[in-house]
Amino acid sequence: MALLPILRYPDPRLHKIAKPVTSFDDRLRKLVADMAETMYEAPGVGLAATQVDAHERVIVIDVSDTRDQLRVLVNPEIVWASEDRQVYDEGCLSVPGIYDGVERPARVRVKAFDADGKPQEFDADGLLAVCVQHEMDHLMGKVFVEYLSPLKRNRIKTKLVKEERELKKDRVAVAAR
Ligand code: K1U
Ligand code: ZN
Description:
Number of strands: 7
Structural class: alpha+beta
Bound molecules: ligand K1U, zinc ion
Radius of gyration: 17 Å
């Protein structure tokens, strides 16, 4: 298994649209295992393949307190969404340190495959519903800050670009030692 680098907003690769998985093979199982390790280490409750620069419809999620209930969603689809909506303070491993409220359907029904190609269907509410929708947005090239006002989004972009510049400077200084 391996830890994968997570793309940081505003990296343009976060806006690529992921393609459906066509082969349920060892390569897919390795991607899933590496994504799960990366999500647990971050730590996060979800991760989409887009965030690790793999543009395939693959998501890992674990919203359990015990961190032992991994869900692998390959080619996920939302087949039903409730009319009632909830606002949740979302975070994102690609937008570190930023949390803000996003309104989405409170409950969804999801169809997907696991890493072996076995079909699954389940209803989600609470954090699981939020997380599934947030990760499925990533697969469509959408980052949660796009739900915020242009003013907030631009402030976040400026902050993260500055942080990235500082991180790069630090890396150069360490390499030159
Ligand atoms: O997509 C991602 O970057 C993962 C993201 C998922 C998410 C969290 C909350 C609301 C919507 C989507 C995260 O996991 S951010 C980190 C986080 O919220 C968290 C980390 C450890 C324990 C509990 C929460
Ligand atoms: Zn995210």
